[in-house]
Design goal:
The chain is α/β, with parallel strands linked by helices. It has 26 helices and 23 strands. It has a ten-stranded mixed beta sheet, with helices on both faces. Strands 2, 3, 4, 5, 6, 7, 10, 11, 12 and 14 form a ten-stranded mixed beta sheet that branches. A three-stranded mixed beta sheet has the order 8-9-13, with no helix packed on it. Strand 10 (about 255-260), helix 10 and strand 11 form a beta-alpha-beta unit.
């Protein structure tokens, strides 16, 4: 969506204030026949977003109990238990994007004259600069601490994202000696690898040929990876598991453990949950209730997480293996870096705070109850106040679960780094660039996989074959991509009031019940020349980002330049029109809805689609409406709606997408296109694994055989004509090939991001069978 649309719309007061309410105040409020009077006077755009938040708070709380129906744990034996949770482990790996086949395990010690491979040496161990292959073009990097004698165990030691391997090994200042748990383990005979993590800095977040941003590196990777079913968490779990591969194939007969602090604690827990070869896990500075996940940094946003997993459920994937939890301070994060001069803002808000000891203990006890295996429970170290991370007590509890029960002392002497010109920032750059390149390569392969998966599977020879074959894909779209919320709709119970009295039509503000906490809202425009018993077609006219219904109706407001009052104009032409309010208004207030929705395997359109289903139900019940002739027409974010809502809701008889149709997947994650959402503040826009499932052509195939049109201005910065033409050519080909060429078209016009209202109006008259 163009930023100018958002900026002008933000300045427009909602329908419940301003000219409409002033006009209504001059006369006695009048409801539509058959409805009760709407007497609300607050800003309905704010009210409904707040309602959605309350609804999602309830659903998140309910998920703790509801998710248990997704598990079939068998606690009759440890072996039976492991078998019974394997499908949940597979779900978990998919949600975090740890789905790619790893490369064969190997370990490379590398260096040059200035930065030799042997970094440091003590009587107990030697430290090497190492790297290991993970995925095509993706390498892990860090330090290998190799013991002088036989290894007591093998451990992946994970620092927080803003710590370096050198700090955790005592080679660089920044972590107190008592918390250098990688060094503590090495001094006590353990073979240790310390990987570098993608940091929270923003040095390399962007493209200097396009724009640099203030997104943390983790968010920069998260955004693009999410769209193709990958995740920065999944990538780093893969780096850990590549080390486990190497441990298991290196010939060293010793148990394998993983330990981490902060972001490293998250990765330690997730890695142990994902791979049963890990014998023990230590989590420090990360464990507790996760219901407030939406407040954490967005790079922790995981599709489906809270629907199936809380921290206790993830811990239950570690069982029956050993788990130690250290109650230590969570790394303090107050939000993304502030935009420096020359950098774009727009990084997502997010903070990290330390939970209470009581809540950590409660979550650990919940894990033990879920597992229900004799003798298994997480060891909780520390409390009631947080202790320094990586403490001796925590390391001893962890190593005991690996079968090594002895004191884990650490010497007061720290080793020295023998490298003369080591640059940790250059290493960080390699990590960010490698993951960026991998995501972009995955995206380039998505189109072929989508073609094979959708049309290649159906191979339709007729319109009926495509329509029938697309039904199962609609359910995938509904349940796996958009996300389905299963609450039944209430009776609409419409509340209305007259807010417009124009020469050719009358406008009513309408509020409908959807769920106990949630309403749908919009404006209904009824032509005055409808005869008794006559049933007219309807056009649902959808606003864009930060809009409200009146933006699409009135001529004397700033929004007219984009919308051309198309709701009113179509009512003047004799259509019944309805301008709904969609939830994408309020800046971070609405964007945080997506943060609450994604972990429930849902999205903004999971709610919006149900509001529109209720709108369709109610419109279809009106005596003057032909329910079989209800079309949808939306601009900008409304065009985004035009691709998704008719694809989901067969009650829409046609769809017109204005100012949005695109190679949508590339639009989202391109790091070379100036209009990409990688460089803007729309952090809610990304949809998990859309790249492998539904680009805009595939969404149009779900709309088929209903009429479908694209309206595209040459100067619309939402995309570029070649991308739009390429994606639309796929749609036109299918309509042509299956004998319905007259049901689809694209109009290019010499204009910007706006309703053109020329051929689109003709399209509506033709396909909704309403004469001019």
């Amino acid at each position: 969506m163009r930023r100018s649309v958002a900026l002008c719309a933000v300045a427009i007061v909602s329908l419940a204030t301003g000219r409409l309410m002033a006009a209504a105040a001059r006369s006695e409020p009048t409801p539509l026949a058959g409805t009760v009077l709407l007497d609300w006077t607050d800003d309905l755009s704010v009210r409904i977003v707040d309602e959605a938040h309350r609804y999602l708070d309830r659903k998140t709380a309910e998920a703790v109990v509801a998710r248990q129906k997704l598990w079939q744990r068998d606690s009759s034996s440890a072996a039976a238990y492991e078998r019974s949770i394997e499908s949940n482990r597979a779900d978990f790996r998919k949600s975090i994007g740890a789905v790619d086949q790893r490369l064969p395990a190997e370990m490379e010690r590398f260096g040059n004259d200035a930065n030799p491979a042997l970094v440091a040496q003590t009587p107990q161990y030697r430290v090497f600069q190492v790297r290991w292959p993970v995925l095509e073009g993706v390498w892990g990097e860090g330090l290998l601490l190799e013991p002088a004698g036989q290894a007591a165990g093998q451990v992946v030691a994970l620092p927080d994202a803003d710590e370096t391997p050198e700090q955790l090994a005592g080679l660089a200042p920044g972590i107190p000696p008592a918390s250098q748990f990688a060094r503590r383990l090495a001094e006590n005979g353990f073979r240790v690898v310390v990987p570098v993590l993608v940091s929270r800095g923003c040095d390399f977040s962007g493209n200097p040929l396009v724009a640099m941003t203030n997104q943390p590196h983790r968010e920069w990777i998260y955004r693009q990876a999410f769209e193709v079913g990958r995740h920065v968490i999944g990538y780093e779990v893969q780096k850990v598991l590549a080390l486990v591969d190497w441990f298991c194939r290196s010939g060293v007969e010793a148990k394998v453990g993983v330990a981490g602090y902060g972001e490293g604690g998250l990765l330690a827990l997730y890695s142990a949950a994902a791979d049963s070869r890990i014998d023990a896990c230590l989590v420090s500075g990360y464990f507790g209730p996760r219901q407030q996940l939406w407040e954490e940094p967005i790079y922790r946003n995981v599709w489906n997480l809270l629907r199936e997993f809380g921290d206790a459920e993830i811990a239950s994937l570690v069982a029956p293996r050993g788990l130690a939890i250290e109650f230590s301070p969570v790394p303090e994060v107050e939000g993304p870096p502030k935009p420096a001069e020359g950098r774009r803002g727009g990084a997502a808000p997010g903070k990290l705070t330390t939970p209470s000891f009581e809540s950590v203990e409660k979550e650990a006890r919940r894990a033990a109850v879920l597992v229900n295996l004799p003798g298994w429970q997480p060891a909780v170290i520390g409390g009631p106040s947080p202790s320094a991370p990586g403490s001796r007590a925590a390391v001893e509890a962890f190593t005991a679960k690996m079968g090594v029960k002895r004191p884990m002392d650490v010497s007061p002497q720290t080793p020295g780094d023998g490298r003369r010109a080591f640059d940790p920032l250059a290493r960080q750059k390699r990590q960010v660039e490698q993951l960026t390149n991998h995501v972009q390569a995955v995206e380039r392969g998505c189109e072929r996989l989508r073609d094979q998966w959708f049309l290649g599977t159906i191979n339709p020879k007729s319109a009926d074959e495509l329509t029938a074959g697309a039904r199962k894909y609609r359910e995938v779209f509904r349940n796996e991509v958009i996300g389905s919320l299963d609450d039944p709709l209430l009776a609409p119970s419409p509340k209305t009031r007259k807010v417009y009295d124009e020469p050719k039509w009358t406008g009513y503000e309408v509020v409908l019940d959807v769920w106990p906490e949630l309403h749908a809202w919009g404006v209904l425009c009824l032509p005055k020349d409808i005869k008794p018993g006559e049933k007219r077609p309807v056009v649902v006219c959808q606003h864009g980002l930060e809009g409200v219904p009146r933006d699409t109706i009135e001529k004397d407001i700033a929004g007219y330049r984009y919308y051309k009052a198309f709701t009113a104009e179509l009512a003047n032409q004799g259509f019944v029109t309805f301008a709904p309010y969609n939830l994408y208004r309020g800046g971070d207030r609405f964007r945080s809805l997506q943060r609450k929705l994604n972990p429930l395997r849902a999205s903004l359109f999971s709610i919006i689609s149900q509001q529109h289903q209720q709108i369709l139900n109610w419109l279809g019940s009106l005596p003057s409406v032909d329910r079989s002739r209800i079309g949808f027409y939306g601009l900008s974010y409304g065009g985004k709606s035009a691709m998704r809502l008719p694809a989901l809701l067969e009650g829409y008889a046609l769809s017109i997408c204005s100012g949005d149709f695109n190679d949508w997947v590339r639009k989202n994650l391109s790091v070379t296109f100036n209009g990409s959402y990688m460089f803007t503040g729309e952090y809610e826009i990304f949809e998990f694994d859309l790249g492998h499932t539904f680009n805009y052509a595939e969404m149009a195939f779900l709309i088929f055989p209903r009429p479908f049109m694209v309206e595209r201005g040459h100067h619309d910065g939402v995309g570029i004509d070649p991308w739009v033409a390429y994606e639309y050519a796929k749609v036109q080909h299918v309509y042509d090939e299956l004998g319905l060429a007259d049901r689809t078209e694209i109009e290019y016009f010499n204009g910007p991001h706006e309703i053109n209202g020329q051929r689109s109006y003709e399209f509506l008259h033709k396909h909704l069978a309403w004469p001019k």
